[in-house]
Amino acid sequence: MTENKKTKKSLITKSKLLNAVETVLIDKGFTELKVNTICEASKVDKKLVYFHFGDLKGLQNEYLRKYDFWESKREIPEEVNKEKVKEILTDQLASIHEKDILKRLLVWELSEGDEALKKVAYDRQKNMCKMIDKFVNQHNFKMDVPPLLALMIGGLHYLSIYPTEKENKFYGIDMNRKTDRKRMVSTIKRLIKQIE
């Protein structure tokens, strides 16, 4: 077999394994991210996990590095006004709702002390903090804005994953229902409008 064919086959195998991590994560949750489960989903021999990634952690870390799920490199606009903050928060709510993988990553991130997961969370928060700092610095607010936005973002994350894990409402709010998501967006807009 020529070198190019070997390289191509190697890339295909790695891709199958990385895709299987996502499949297992979405279908079964992070507790089932095991070599045998991933290999079963990818139909790849488990020896190849060790050959290509060193071990299970190596495979998981490569998966987390490969995709920028949270747009942690999202460019921060020159002007960060209330409308831009509303847009970013409502976009984040919509993204988490639409992408099961984001819900699963949040649960995994909250449940494990994994260094790669910490890095993903750190990058996401670092970018959001830059946006919040710019927002606060560009305006002369009387109130302490960062804690309000932290509560809103934390609440959005929690409300988004709660129905996934508990299949239940949280204080009467079911984020799987379009009407309840609209209520949340309306509340976000109202709270941001009241920042002074």
Automatic annotation (TrEMBL):
UniProt cross-references to Gene3D superfamilies, sorted A to Z: Tetracycline Repressor, domain 2 (1.10.357.10)
Superkingdom of origin organism: Bacteria
InterPro entries in UniProt: Homeodomain-like_sf (IPR009057)
Name this protein carries in UniProt: TetR/AcrR family transcriptional regulator
Organism name: Sphingobacterium alkalisoli
